[in-house]
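FAQ: What does a ligand-bound record look like?

Like this one, built around cytidine-5'-triphosphate:
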Amino acid sequence: MSNLRSTYVVIVAGGSGSRMQSALPKQFIELCGEPVLMHTIKAFYNSQSSPQIILALHGSYHELWAQLCTKHNFTIPHKIITGGQTRFHSIKNAVDSIADDDVLIAVHDAVRPLVSADIINEAYRCAAENGTAVTAVKSRDSIRQVKGNGSESLNRDSIYLVQTPQTFQSAILKKAYEQPYTDTFTDDASVVEQSGVAITLIAGDYSNIKITFPEDVAIAEALLNKKSHQR
Ligand SMILES: Nc1ccn([C@@H]2O[C@H](COP(=O)(O)OP(=O)(O)OP(=O)(O)O)[C@@H](O)[C@H]2O)c(=O)n1
Ligand SMILES: C[C@](O)(CO)[C@H](O)COP(=O)(O)O
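The answer part, i.e. the structure of the complex:
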């Protein structure tokens, strides 16, 4: 890892988890005895990059998070920012709170607790060199695009499924997040691309899953157990 810039990570945990259909937003659900969000923060804290951590949380969950930190004796330093109406607005609030210039900022979903240290370190290295580094994996399934009443096959070797972290030089990310919100912004790469900057893809990991639906919890727990046995 060879970059001289300071590193930050914005961990977005401001969502309500409507597709999970649980009373508690999915970032607070326990995996192997600890909330999902704690696994995610630890992944960044324990990486060689050890970035400054900014956590975007909906205002109504600040108190719960403080209670969980006490209960789990969780002392990793982090700054809490109030999340917004959408993922875009949560990230904008967090990015606007970073006063330092010429730093590297990774954006990561709180609900991707399986991200590896190797990916985190490579993301900062690549963003330092190229300006952007967006994690993605090649499609393992065949792909068809619906056209009219039918569909046609696409070359799956040119289709990548995008993950987080998505990492940027701060000037690029800040400028991109000055744009007005549109609902075509599904991730940070789409926001940055809209501002006119090309995206560099880096290799993700099929186990870096996003916990979205109820069945993802058991999969994430199994992968976490496997990871801890490999250590
Ligand atoms: N207003 C929002 C909405 C989403 N997120 C975060 O963005 C990440 C990816 O979003 P997603 O998986 O869609 O989470 P939710 O919005 O919580 O889920 P759903 O779409 O099912 O409601 C999550 O870590 C989520 O907490 C956020 O910080 N602020
Ligand atoms: C950012 C992301 O995780 C990249 O795959 C994804 O786009 C988030 O999408 P969601 O619709 O908020 O689940």
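Follow-up question: can I read anything off the structure? Yes, for example: DSSP finds seven helices and eleven strands in the chain.
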